[in-house]
Amino acid sequence: MWIALGILAWVAGWALNVWLAGRARSRATALAVPVVFGLTIVIVWEAVVRGFGISPVLLPAPTAIAAEFGQSAGVLWEDFVQTVLKGALSGYVIGCGAALLTAVVVDRFDFLRRGLLPVGNFVAALPIVGTAPILVMWFGFDWQSKAAVVVVMVFFPVLVNAVEGLRDTSVMQRDLMRTYAAGYWTTLLKLRLPAAMPFIFNGLKIASTLALIGAIVAEFFGSPIRGMGFRISTSVGLLALDLVWAEIVVAALAGSAFYGGLALIEKAVTFWHPSQRGQG
Amino acid sequence: MRSVLPVLTVVAVILGLWYAASVWLNAQWALDMAARQDRELGGIALVLDTWSQDKPKLPAPHQVAAELWKTTIGQNITSKRSLVYHGWVTLSATLAGFGLGTVLGISLAVGIVYNRVMDMSVMPWVIASQTIPILAIAPMIIVVLNAMGISGLLPKAMISMYLSFFPVVVGMVKGLRSPSRMQLDQMRTWSATRPQEFLRLRLPASMPYLFASMKIAMAASLVGAIVGELPTGAVAGLGARLLAGSYYGQTIQIWSALFMAAIVAAGMVGLIGLIQRVTLKRMGMT
Predict the structure, then answer these.
(1) Which Pfam family, just one, is annotated for this protein (chain A) (predicted)?
(2) Helices A193-219 + A228-237 axis angle, to 10
(3) Cβ–Cβ < 8 Å for B252, B67
(4) What is the ipTM of this complex?
(5) Does A17 reach chain B within 8 Å, measured CB to CB?
(6) How much is the pLDDT for A280?
């Protein structure tokens, strides 16, 4: 019964999407198609779990997760504050701020740029999460160590992107600033920083997902008795998978909100850039 | 070649800072020990002591190098103490995940490029999937797959796969769409079929994009494999070495595992870069 319903939902969802995609491309269809797809997946998931009688220890049904989400909202909120607001966000602000200041300095001295950029590119490819146990040892179990991990993780991607962005002005534009008798700082503020914004936001977006990952993984190496990483690893041990999935929903919502917020700010700041123009 | 001197300078400065930091961080412990043994410790002796402790807060670079040497060259590679053994455990999971992720990524990209419905419904979710901190659910994936009787390499590879498919999808979609209108029209004037168009035009055109994303995917895949080893309880692999080191306060062991991971990552990314150079050269694209 449930299996048939699942297959039916899949076919219906797909047919609806084919019909929607065949229509003229507009904002509504661009939004509706992925939503329909997502809903279909959730319905099929529910149907499969019920139809095949999958044990909740392996994969809880979406309805069970939603129920758990409502039931333990208090715990989830506490974990959210501990991990996202205290750990990830403070580390993100410190790390990105430090990276941007460093980028301006690096950009000023060509020697530094040629030396630091290859090193930065190299470090950005390394598994930096691995420093988590060391930083937890240095800064203790509370959120300070999580913030430190986040700082280290976001620093290099933002630095590399910002340095690249600061170079993204043409000689003509810089010459024009010189004919206006603009000094270094005026040129930096009025021309080069705005021109670097698309690159900087690219780095900030990459860093936003890294920040959440860093804060959660650092909790696996030791944490106070709250926090999303702590809750996930202990609940897995207790086989309370519906709580784990509820934490994942929180993490996904936080991650998407973070990313979406950055995208909105980017849209407002870089409205002049070709990738943002003519979209609406 | 012009950047050799600056890079060397920066590396030298980092090493210098590292030595200075290890003096600063380890001095307290050295002074405490000396006070307990009624010894005077100062000047050169203090500095030397901070660079040769057993469990320092921050081991000096030469200590890490010595540990790396001891655990790679000095050990039989089948021994559990050998970092080569642990590195291989992690690397095999990384490569399996990377392979699966690349295949999944390419096939999704082909679907997205050729099917408008898939483009509109799957692409936003591919992007959304990366805002979920997947590493956070690594423990659950491992435990659940273990409960289903799948253990060992595969669960770690699944996490690596999830992390590595995304850059490949994004890069390949961009690459497969990189041929211009004119080139596509040219193919049509030769009455090329769709498979021909794909094999002769789109696929070759996407190669530079594929290699660029494969480098990112490899780095991500290694991170996935390392984190995937954490919840299995420190059995084998670089992640297990990190966890065991943090349990027992063996900082030198943590740092050497970290450097081993860095070496593996750099080696793998370098290897892809080499393949990229050879392939693109033979295709006449450089």
Answers:
(1) BPD_transp_1
(2) 30
(3) yes
(4) 0.72
(5) yes
(6) 43
